[in-house]
Design brief:
Oligomer: single chain
Shape: elongated
Bound molecules: L-homoserine
Strand content: 15-25%
């Protein structure tokens, strides 16, 4: 009988409990061992919960209980999640998590501690919510050199952009709805300013390269400056604006990565990914393009990935553990000049000034009077910045996903 502790009874934690209750029989059958929740750790009281006796505020009860072999850390944030996870792994208990902030920050150390103690530290739910992506990348795509990853990695921003595109809603109204539906992070800035997507592309890049990619090294822009006019212009370009986590694995071993709103052409399967859905396009040198699609946020999708990791820990408790990435010995990040993008630009400068600055470019019929709107040739970052600085007034500039 496997006894599990659920740490944090918020959006994801309550779903973990519900899934184990609802599908416990099937899960136990799959893994060949009965699995039940022995503790729920939360600082709040839940006096009306049907199993109120399993709630505790004392972490040490879980840590010191030899019966507990797996804990789900769904508290979120760095502290005390880091300290709890570290203590549990050192005590020989496996930990599973949906906490991308923790994995992206302390993942290398925690994975190493897990390996030393021959227990698991699994984080399928940390990227893409309910979408299987971590395990497929580390197992099913293991025969490939990953060449690139481009994905919609944040459900909240995709929901917001979709409401703006299809219903003409304001950014604020759409954000409020996403929060009400339980998609947004505790601090919505993490979603709308791109930090959540940044941590996720950092985790995927670390997995793909086998080297830790520090999210602090990934230039990140959110969607707070995207307007309904930008959205309408994208339509004229036969595309839609999506917040994209992007990583390109260069032949010299370096990684180019960014998070930014990009114009995605309608012909790309990513363009039709709407609402809270995420999609991650991975290109491998043998397999070509593979796309992973599903609900990237929300209680039950995310909790289903956490419970699958719990099952994995129970099933594979005696299997020798390996860490999926290590600390690189040197800087592995490429510069902005190692990758080229075409840009969509709006300016109040004249078409003549635009030609003077950018030379060859393709003009788009303007939606806003007195603006020039155009698409550049593919440019590296320093060329783009140098040309852009020649314009007097830039309204917006958005990369185009090739
Ligand atoms: N706030 C995140 C999102 C939740 O909207 O995608 C899942 O990581």
């Amino acid at each position: 009988m496997a006894k599990v502790a659920v740490m944090g009874f918020g959006t994801v934690g309550s779903g973990v409990y519900d899934i184990i209750k609802k599908n416990g029989g099937k899960i136990s059958e799959n893994i060949g061992e009965e699995t039940s929740v022995k503790y729920i750790l939360d600082i709040r009281d839940f006096p009306d919960h049907p199993e109120k006796e399993i709630f505790t505020k004392e972490f040490d009860r879980i840590l010191n209980d030899d019966e507990v072999t797996v804990a789900a850390e769904v508290i979120g944030g760095l502290h005390p999640a880091y300290e709890y996870t570290k203590s549990l792994l050192e005590a020989g208990k496996s930990v599973v998590t949906s906490n991308k902030e923790l994995v992206a920050t302390y993942g290398t150390e925690l994975l190493e501690i897990a390996k030393e103690n021959n227990v698991s530290y699994l984080f399928e739910a940390s990227v893409g919510g309910g979408i299987p992506i971590i395990r497929p990348m580390s197992q099913c795509l293991a025969a490939n050199n990953i060449k690139s990853i481009a994905g919609i990695l944040n459900g909240t921003t995709n929901y917001i952009l979709n409401e703006m595109i299809t219903k003409g809603k304001s950014f604020e109204t759409a954000l409020k709805q996403a929060q009400d539906k339980g998609y947004a992070e505790r601090n919505p800035a993490a979603d709308v300013e791109g930090h959540d997507a940044c941590r996720k592309i950092a985790i995927l890049s670390s997995l793909a390269s086998g080297k830790f990619v520090d999210y602090n090294d990934i230039p990140t822009e959110g969607i707070t400056n995207i307007t309904l006019d930008d959205v309408k212009y994208a339509e004229k370009l036969d595309g839609v604006i999506k917040l994209i986590g992007y990583a390109k694995f260069l032949d010299n071993g370096k990684i180019y990565s960014h998070v930014a709103p990009m114009v995605v052409k309608n012909e790309s399967p990513i363009a039709s990914v709407n609402g809270v859905f995420n999609a991650i396009m991975v290109n491998g040198d043998c397999v070509g393009d593979v796309m992973f699609y599903g609900k990237g946020a929300g209680t039950m999708p995310t909790a289903s990935a956490v419970v699958a990791d719990i099952a994995d820990c129970v099933r594979n408790k005696n299997r020798k553990k390996t860490a999926p990435w290590e600390m690189p010995e040197e800087n592995i990040m490429a510069s902005g000049d190692d990758e080229k993008f075409s840009y969509f630009i709006r300016t109040t400068d004249s078409a003549e000034d635009v030609r003077g600055a950018f030379g060859k470019c393709e003009f788009v019929d303007n939606i806003v009077k007195s603006e020039s709107a155009f698409v550049t040739e593919p440019l590296c970052e320093s060329d783009f910045k140098e040309k852009l600085s020649k314009l007097k007034n830039v309204v917006s500039s958005i990369r185009i996903l090739a």
